[in-house]
Write a structure and sequence with these properties.
The complex is a heterodimer of chains A (185) and B (120). Chain A is 37% helix and 25% strand. Chain A has 185 residues and is an alpha+beta fold. In chain A, a hairpin with a 3-residue loop joins strand 3 (87-92) and strand 4 (96-104). Chain B is globular. Classes of the chains: A alpha+beta (185), B alpha+beta (120).
């Protein structure tokens, strides 16, 4: 089990990257009036067959050869179902995969979001050849980070350059904290 | 609050600097396992620590990348160090604090931190 939902996000998006997705959309949205926390990860990777989709929620299914269990999707599913939420996965070969998990925001068994900045920063700087669209919403506040926009500004300057990497980290941290406000996520 | 304007200023400043990149064959690679097993065991702060420390220390001959599961899940977080002309070093059960030791003693000092290395 992951101790932070942001770790589940990192793990699931790594699947998208491995599936060859050029763009992965990560949406985290909290609505206090509905007592709802929602995480959606949508990629345009290679997708899965109907049979594969059924098997990924089985811990004894994995595409890797170094070990026989694959716990990424089962962990994510469990995190939602333990917290009064739901889990949904939809995929189409050569179109992509969408994973959606919902949580009761105030459920005592809901894992904390944890360090969302670290997750997004890790993804963005470690997979420079990929694009990410990160949307973070809390009630009426919203923050969007689009790597295509960053790339447009930076040209061929790497996201890994010290100053750029630090900027992205601070940019994420400040905006996430400002959107979160006093809400516990 | 940070804005994209600030990023433009960073870009303009960096455009005037000529990046010094070392040759591929002289590059040391630090590879962090980031599959489900690694992430669950705490690989994210380890990866962040290596990236930050390598940058902060200006180690331009070191690159930090990630990989999947190498099949030793019980020893995660695992970090492999590939130095040109040397045998691969595999550090196990890593933390951000141990990463700092590896950067200082191994990557900067040239001495493998044997207490964190797994025997082959």
């Amino acid at each position: 089990m992951m101790t932070e939902l942001s770790l589940n996000i990192l793990d699931i998006v790594e699947n998208s990257v491995k599936a060859g997705a050029a763009l992965t959309e990560i949406t985290v949205s909290a609505q206090t009036a509905k007592n709802l926390l929602e995480i959606i990860i949508k990629d345009n990777g290679c997708g899965m067959s109907e049979e594969q989709v059924k098997s990924v929620i089985d811990p004894f299914y994995t595409t890797r050869t170094t070990r026989k269990v694959g716990l990424g999707v089962p962990f994510f599913k469990e995190s939602a179902e333990l917290a009064g939420g739901s889990f949904f996965i939809e995929s189409k070969l050569s179109v992509g995969t969408t994973v959606r998990a919902t949580y009761e925001l105030d459920n005592i068994d809901r894992m904390p979001m944890g360090d969302l900045t670290a997750t997004i920063h890790t993804l963005v700087t470690m997979h420079e050849e990929k694009d990410f669209l990160f949307t973070y919403k809390v009630n009426e506040n919203e923050f969007v980070l689009d790597t295509r926009q960053l790339r447009e500004i930076l040209g061929d300057i790497s996201f890994k350059e010290y100053e750029v990497s630090n900027y992205i980290k601070d940019y994420l941290k400040e905006n996430i904290s400002s959107v979160t406000g006093e809400i516990i996520i | 609050m940070k804005s994209l304007e600030e990023l433009k200023a960073i870009r303009d400043k960096m455009k005037n600097q000529v990046g010094i990149r070392s040759e591929e064959e002289n590059t040391t690679r630090v590879v962090v396992g980031m599959a489900t097993c690694g992430i669950a065991a705490g690989a994210r702060p380890v990866l962040t620590a290596f990236s930050d420390l390598v940058q902060e220390n200006g180690l331009s001959n070191v690159t930090v990348t990630q990989t999947g599961c190498i099949g030793l899940c019980m020893y995660e977080p695992i970090v492999e160090v590939y130095e040109p002309g040397k045998e691969k070093v595999t550090y196990v059960k890593m933390t951000a604090e141990k990463a700092e030791e590896v950067v200082n003693l191994h990557l900067k000092g040239g001495n493998v931190v044997t207490k964190y290395v797994i025997d082959k």
